[in-house]
Amino acid sequence: MTGDVLIGLVMLIVMIGAIFIGIQISFTLLFLALAFGYLALGRVVFDLAYFQTIGMMKEELLAAVPLFIFMGFITEQAGLMERLFSALRMLLAPVRGSLYIVVILTSTVFAMATGIVGAAVTVLGIMAGPIMIKTKYDPVLSAGAITAGGTLGILIPPSVMLIVMGPVLGVSVADLYAAAFGPGFLLASMYLVYLIVRSMINPKLGPPVPKEERVTSVYLILREVVIGVLPLALLIAATLGSILAGLATPTEASGVGALGALILAVCYRRLTFAGVKQAVISATLTSSMVLLLAVTSNIFGAVFARLGTADWITTNLTSLPVPPLVMLGFVVFLLFLLGWPFEWPAIILVFLPIFYPVVDALKPSLSQSFGIPPELFMVWFGALVAVTMQTAYLSPPVAMSAYYLKQVVKEWSLRTIYKGMFEFMVLQCIAIAIVMFVPQIATYLPMQLQAEARAVTTEEVDDSQNRLEEDPLKAGQEEQQEEQQEEEQSLEKDELSNPKKK
Fold it and tell me: What are the CA-CA distances from residue 233 to residues 111, 216, 229, 241, 365 (Å)?
């Protein structure tokens, strides 16, 4: 081990310790990178930081982050989630555990229209919490359903986390979006099956809506379903549909989504100056936090790699006498543990680049073992990381979903909320194992989209004489000149063959 490698290890240990004691992570990364980098590299570290910052500012993909966050806040203010929740509640009123089902279905659909977590958990708590308490639903299961369902927005596209993860793993965000659908819907289905089975076994956990509170008019139910579902479906088709179909980049689609959310807010008469102002402020605060962390972590990672510590860690981990699958499981387990004290931005932008070379070294053997195309290996790994990161919102002590829910449902204690989240955290761990050992769940849709893109046929044009490069106007003039010459020649031949008599 060289001196520079040792300095890098000390920098990493100090960074983890500083974050654990509560120092702001972005400025910690910047300070440590410049201080330890100057100690080992001298003034070169400032040039390195400058070029890393410029390179990050040129990343057009990150422009989608504030736009998708803004779309989420506007969608929430437009009342689309309340409409959807009300429509599904009317439709499923006679079913046992209907409120559980409505919460998960609303969360899944709303996740495809927002990509943010805090607003989903808060709104679900405001809408479903009082009704669940009134109808005597089990508080532990209710809190778990709301917090677990609300966190689906971090996994199901258009997740902001996947946009940030794409450049880190060096893969297309569109492929990551396609890969995340399978695990996202798998997790939502597992939640639904678990809640329905529990309600069937013990009807007291989730009784159906009382008959006197049900809406009996089929017209009203269908009207509410159309009004609640159709606008969100159009918004989702305009954003995710355009990305998956290859019609727009994530940045372009985020602009369309933000505009669509504003139009829907106008149609529902919920667009106000105060609401737009609050959405702009909230989107600015959230995206500034993420983008500042992206810049500082990029500088930290560049210094860390320049010191040679990243290569040293990769070499030592890959040389251990363990199978590649065990090493991958170890990396996923470390990411899972990091999710307990850290939120996803720190893990994706700081720790994932450290593990990336290790996983990349495992790619040849694991691709062959699992039958994953090499070009989709990192896409599959990104989907696996995304499922693992969802546990960060349900794992104490930083589990933000618990605090979001506690703020709006005072009747439930933090102990009750944590107990409910733990049950769904077990389901998340099962989902991680399924995605790891059945990679087709994540790779099927990207493979289909890539196959369709390759199947597009193009008509071959014979341009052996470079005709396509000629000026069409000039070519037309030349054709007219040739026709005139042919006419003149034919006239001369006629005169010669039929001379006029004088």
Answer: 12, 25, 6, 10, 41
